[in-house]
């Protein structure tokens, strides 16, 4: 019986091979894309899931209610973690965490490594299994160091590194450390990455800041004992905060800050570490958080494509069902029951879906590499064969088969046997409401994606072209690698490039502009009292010629100058900082930014976007205080041959540091890297819109073919009565264009809401224009019209004698 069903199904599929091929192509492309997207989404949500108690780990953050608004920060003072553990018995483990680069010497080898400063509880909280060493003793000695397998191999080859000594240079201080443990290589889906783990006591300025509650420098993670209700944490810690942060709270009260609903001006809270990878609302979380919006956008587009492909399948099956009406009538006459008919049609559906799934997975294997390059995804083909993914594929297969197979079969089973055998299909031959509804859904989703594509492209174009207030085209940013004295590197580059005719200026700073090739970002904010209130400002350590090198416009006063020795204690501020201070004739006034000395304002620069365009311009103060390191060297070159200038600067660096990699990049490249997520989203929408339109048009083409077949005699009669080609094309296209228009009316408000919400994340953004919706609607209608016209024109040009011959 089953064999008979399969043979009959194959014959029927072969008869309608053109339509079935369209079905297979549409479904296989949709399945391939959905498989890739679902794997990407799964990978993003799998971040940090390998930690055994990931749900029990929380990151501490503060909420400060300032007069300027609410501020959330993960930066913590050094004495916080020990004080919390001593005073609160509910805490099981707590660890401080801070990152730094370090130069490591192991015998004759010298390596740049990523160092994590942590407390002894770190390896008890986070699941980084030790392959050598004991988790309870690896941090017993102050000079112990734990390294990863990868770092161990780089330092010692295949030898056991345990108890071996290495020299680590942090800043300018070189110290010996003994390897006490080796952890397994860190999974790629970890937001915490490191090469070496050191005791937190080695963190720079640890001793000087050990009792300072107003110096915020690192992160802290906490794990509570079983049964503790974390909802009560902020309330229970209120007395602790009021006692230890009294000075900060008094300053907030003085400035007129308003408390929150609990009466707190400053409070400690918990952020679940399980959500760390998506926590873009907090500054200073581990790793590089990803906006959940982008991941959910991927998921939504995958679902859209799958829905559109399923709608195609249903509509094509129903449309082709009209040509098989007599077959159904004959089967019923010969005694076929409803379940036999259902089984027959479902067998055909299963065969098409199975072929589509196999082809889709094969296509997935072919396009996975370009997909990974486009979306910066870390998936691999092996993920496809994980049990949970195979179950998901099976579930999607069953769902598509059920949805796409049941409804067409149900429609065909309702045909009236006598009427069908007479050639009269009655109402069943008319375009049904279900088909029209499905077409509207298809094109509503496609139009929505077109609108989103246009608006994201506009916003990214705006971000790329908006003047930032500094020269981003002719300025090269060079990260000073780990273990190198930044001030010395700056002076060496200045001296070496002084005779280079291509170089106009050289300077340096503590923070980069944008995100360089080193991938790091830094920020430093301080607050100080002035005129009875607190002034908060971003602090930027710079060197001579910084304003000149970056072409920042000076509106009053002057830049730092080598001829003025007192400039080492001076400050140059931006317009926002000047407004924050208030008053007139600000140049020459003194700021008490640091307890040990006062800084004289020598210049005011025009506001410039030193952060991404997600953020408004904030007050910034440029100083030359040597306590802050020079981490980046900036070189301004003459416009013209930038490639030649780049090569000469690279050669200059290699002359000074032949064993250190040159990782310089132009500032326009750095600023572009700040919007990688936006570009990814744009690529997602473009790819999704193209696929959705292509699949929709495949289905529309197939349906138009079936409708032309059904109306062949009508078209012949109209031609005999004098109808021209244009009139017939319009007749056949009119109903479909109405549906596309209805789809656009549905899509427009949904797209406006989605994109308006997305744009709110930018301090600087475009306004959504009305013409975007008109353009998207016209594009959808034009594509639909072109698709339908292929078959309509062919039908209109056919000799009416052929279509009327049987009459």
UniProtKB/TrEMBL annotation:
Chief place where the protein resides: membrane
Recorded coiled-coil stretches: none
Domain MacB-like periplasmic core: 22-238, 497-644
Record localization: Cell membrane
Keywords, sorted A to Z: Cell membrane, Membrane, Transmembrane, Transmembrane helix
Domain of life according to the entry: Bacteria
Ranges that cross the membrane: 21-43, 294-316, 350-371, 391-415, 436-457, 684-709, 736-755, 767-790
Boundaries of every ABC3 transporter permease C-terminal domain copy: 300-415, 689-796
PROSITE patterns xref list: PROKAR_LIPOPROTEIN (PS51257)
Listed GO MF terms: transmembrane transporter activity
Pfam families for the chain: FtsX, MacB_PCD
Mode of membrane association: Multi-pass membrane protein
Gene Ontology cellular-component terms listed: plasma membrane
PANTHER family tied to this protein: ABC-TYPE MACROLIDE FAMILY EXPORT SYSTEM PERMEASE COMPONENT 2, MEMBRANE COMPONENT OF TRANSPORTER-RELATED
Protein name: FtsX-like permease family protein
């Amino acid at each position: 019986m089953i064999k008979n069903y399969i043979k009959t199904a194959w014959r029927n599929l072969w008869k309608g091979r053109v339509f079935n091929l369209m079905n297979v192509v549409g479904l296989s492309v949709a399945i391939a894309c959905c498989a890739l997207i679902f794997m990407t989404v799964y990978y993003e949500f799998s971040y940090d899931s390998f930690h055994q108690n990931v749900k029990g780990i929380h990151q501490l953050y503060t909420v400060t209610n300032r007069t300027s608004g609410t501020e959330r920060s993960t930066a913590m003072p050094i004495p916080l973690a020990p004080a919390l553990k001593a005073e609160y018995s509910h805490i099981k483990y707590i660890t401080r965490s801070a990152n730094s680069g370090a130069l490591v010497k192991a015998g004759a080898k010298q390596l740049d490594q990523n160092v994590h400063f942590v407390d002894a509880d770190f390896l008890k909280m986070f699941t980084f299994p030790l392959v050598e060493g004991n988790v309870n003793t690896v941090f017993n000695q102050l000079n112990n160091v734990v390294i990863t397998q990868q770092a161990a191999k780089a330092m010692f080859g295949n030898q056991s590194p345990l108890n071996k000594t290495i020299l680590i240079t942090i800043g300018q201080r070189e110290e010996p450390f003994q390897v006490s443990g080796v952890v397994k290589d860190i999974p790629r889906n970890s937001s915490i990455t490191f090469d070496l783990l050191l005791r937190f006591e080695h963190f720079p300025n640890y001793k000087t800041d050990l009792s300072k509650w107003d110096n915020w420098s690192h992160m802290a993670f906490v794990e509570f004992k079983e049964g503790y209700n974390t909802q009560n944490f902020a309330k229970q810690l209120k007395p602790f905060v009021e006692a230890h942060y009294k000075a900060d709270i008094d300053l907030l009260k003085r400035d007129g800050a308003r408390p929150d609903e609990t009466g707190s001006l400053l409070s400690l809270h918990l952020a679940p570490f399980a959500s760390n990878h998506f926590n873009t609302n907090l500054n200073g979380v581990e790793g590089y958080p990803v906006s959940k919006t982008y991941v959910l956008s991927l998921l939504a587009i995958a679902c859209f494509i799958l829905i559109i492909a399923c709608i195609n399948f249903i509509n094509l099956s129903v449309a082709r069902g009209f040509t098989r009406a007599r077959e159904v009538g004959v089967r019923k006459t010969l005694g076929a029951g409803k379940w036999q008919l259902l089984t027959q049609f479902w067998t055909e559906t299963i065969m098409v879906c199975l072929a589509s799934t196999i082809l889709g997975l094969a296509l997935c294997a072919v396009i996975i590499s370009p997909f990974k390059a486009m979306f910066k995804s870390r998936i691999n083909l092996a993920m496809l064969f994980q049990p949970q993914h195979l179950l998901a594929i099976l579930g999607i297969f069953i769902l598509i088969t059920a949805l796409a197979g049941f409804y067409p079969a149900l429609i065909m089973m309702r045909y009236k046997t006598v009427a069908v055998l007479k050639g009269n299909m009655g109402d069943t031959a008319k375009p049904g409401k279900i088909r029209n509804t499905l077409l509207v859904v298809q094109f509503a989703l496609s139009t929505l994606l077109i609108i989103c594509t246009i608006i994201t492209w506009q916003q990214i174009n705006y971000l790329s072209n908006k003047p930032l207030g500094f020269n981003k085209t002719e300025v090269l940013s060079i990260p000073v690698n780990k273990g190198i004295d930044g001030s010395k590197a700056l002076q060496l580059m200045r001296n070496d490039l002084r005779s280079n005719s291509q170089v106009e200026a050289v300077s340096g700073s503590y923070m980069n502009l944008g995100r360089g090739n080193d991938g790091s970002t830094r920020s430093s904010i301080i607050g100080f009292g002035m005129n009875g209130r607190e002034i908060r400002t971003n602090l930027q350590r710079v060197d001579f010629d910084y304003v000149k090198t970056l072409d920042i416009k000076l509106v009053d006063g002057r830049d730092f100058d080598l001829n003025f020795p007192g400039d080492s204690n001076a400050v140059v501020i931006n317009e926002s900082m000047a407004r924050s201070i208030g008053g007139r004739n600000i140049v020459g006034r003194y700021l008490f930014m640091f307890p040990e000395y006062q800084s004289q304002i020598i210049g005011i620069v025009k506001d410039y976007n030193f952060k991404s365009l997600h953020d408004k311009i904030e007050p910034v103060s440029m100083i030359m205080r040597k306590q802050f390191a020079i981490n980046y060297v900036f070189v301004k070159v003459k416009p013209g041959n930038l490639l030649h200038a780049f090569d000469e600067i690279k050669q200059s660096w290699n002359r000074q540091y032949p064993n250190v990699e040159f990782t310089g990049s132009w500032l326009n490249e750095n600023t572009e890297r700040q919007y990688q997520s936006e570009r990814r989203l744009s690529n997602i929408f473009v790819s999704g819109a193209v696929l959705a339109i292509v699949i929709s048009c495949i289905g529309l083409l197939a349906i138009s073919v079936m409708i032309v077949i059904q109306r062949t005699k009508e078209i012949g009669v109209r031609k005999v009565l004098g109808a021209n080609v244009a009139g017939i094309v319009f007749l056949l296209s009119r109903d479909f264009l109405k549906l596309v228009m209805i789809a656009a009316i549905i899509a427009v408000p949904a797209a406006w809401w989605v994109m308006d919400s997305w744009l709110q994340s930018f301090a600087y953004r475009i306004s959504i224009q009305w013409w975007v919706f008109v353009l998207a609607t016209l594009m959808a209608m034009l594509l639909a019209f072109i698709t339908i016209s292929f078959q309509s024109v062919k039908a209109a040009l056919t000799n009416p004698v052929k279509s009327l011959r049987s009459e």
